[in-house]
Amino acid sequence: MGCSRVGAQLAGMLDAEGHNVTIMDVEPYSFRKLPQTFKGVALVGNGLEDEALKKAGIEEADVFVSTTQGDNRNVMACQIAKHIYHVPKVVSRIYDPIREEMYRNLGLDTVSPTRVVADLLKDRIEG
Amino acid sequence: MYIIVVGGGEVGYHLSKILLNDGHEVLILEQDASRCERLTEELGAIVHRGDGCEATTLDSVGTGRADMLVAVTDGDEDNLVACQVAKHKFNVPRTIARMTNPNNETIFKALGIDATVSSTNLILAHIEQELPSHPLIPLLKLRSGTFEVVEIKVPPGSDVVGKKIGSFRMPKGSVVLLVIGKEKGPFIPTDDTVLEAEDEVVAITSAENEEAMRAILSGK
User: Which residues of A touch B50 (CB under 8 A)?
Assistant: First the structure.
């Protein structure tokens, strides 16, 4: 969910590996970021809405990843995927490291780009 | 009580005003600077500019001692996160979230929000009551979610006109509470009450029996 740069890149990578990928975004224009070779499904829809999620096939999905620009949107979508649809693997991007830590403690699988990139930059400076 | 209101829009403003009048300690969290200024002018120095979803902001306003947090921004996901942070990081005993999308009610409940208010549903219910042709009007959903109070108007051609309430079988778990007669006005019915056309029947029923109830009273 979320055809951001990261979302599009990830979808392209998974698709190239032969997985069945569906990417959702509320803004069809954002699908331009998908690689030319992308063979998956690009679906216009809001990942916070039941109907759109079902259309995207959430009931059969093995993995759900949320990569929109909004932390709260990601967190809500992932909790829906995990607790309502029981998707086996759910990963959320959360920019705010404090919020990320809290939701990790609540059992969500989370990645904070802020923390990851800051660590990488620090390593680079010191290394 | 110390109550934190997240979102200083129209709902946040009027809610805070009522809570202040009731003698509560109220703090409004609002992100927009000009909105903050206006709220401060109207309500006094109870406004803090900041993001109510951010733990640092909530920490700085003493959320740890809050008795309740009410999130009334127009973003459902923001209200959800504000309530979850309050609950899990600051142990606020009671959290209430406003939702715009009524479908989110089950999700919010499943995710531990104590109470939800769907502004869309409230508005819809009020409009439905004003529609003369609508056969069944949901008046009130009880908090447990299983039972609701509904109002049904008996149409002139219905089979139940002229019959006693005790003579036809209501769906299981449904009870007629009140009859509002066109001329007689409202009264508490007994099994011997004879229904007349245009009577408004107020009943308690479960969501799954709502349709059966409507079918019996409209006599189709």
Answer: none
- 8-state DSSP, A127: -
Q: What ipTM describes this predicted complex?
A: 0.86
Report the share of chain A in percent with pLDDT over 70: 100
CATH number of the domain residue A46 falls in:
3.40.50.720
What does CATH list as the number for B2-122? Answer: 3.40.50.720
Return left, alpha or beta for B44; rule: phi > 0 is left, psi -120 to 50 is alpha, else beta: left
Min Cα–Cα distance to chain B from A56, Å: 18
Query: Which structural domain, as residue segments, surrounds residue A100?
Result: 5-126
Return residues 91-130 of B near A (CB < 8 Å).
101, 103-104, 106-107, 110-111
Mutation test of the interface with chain A: which of B111, B113, B116, choosing the one with the most A Cβ atoms within 10 A? Answer: B111
Q: How far apart are CA B125 and CA B121, in angstroms?
A: 6
- B131-218 topology per CATH: Alpha-Beta Plaits (3.30.70)
All structural domains of chain B with their residue ranges: 2-122, 131-218
Question: Do the domains at B2-122 and B131-218 have one common CATH topology?
Answer: no
- CA A89 → CA A78, B129, B149, B206, distances in Å? 10, 45, 41, 36
Can you name the residues that pair with B153 across neighbouring β-strands? B200
Q: What is the pLDDT along chain B (220 residues), one digit of tens a residue?
A: 999 999 999 999 999 999 999 999 999 999 999 999 999 999 999 999 999 999 999 999 999 999 999 999 999 999 999 999 999 999 999 999 999 888 888 888 888 888 888 888 888 777 777 766 666 777 777 766 678 888 888 888 888 888 888 888 788 888 888 998 888 888 998 888 888 888 888 988 887 888 888 888 877 5
Nearest to B108 by CA among B66, B138, B146, B145: B145
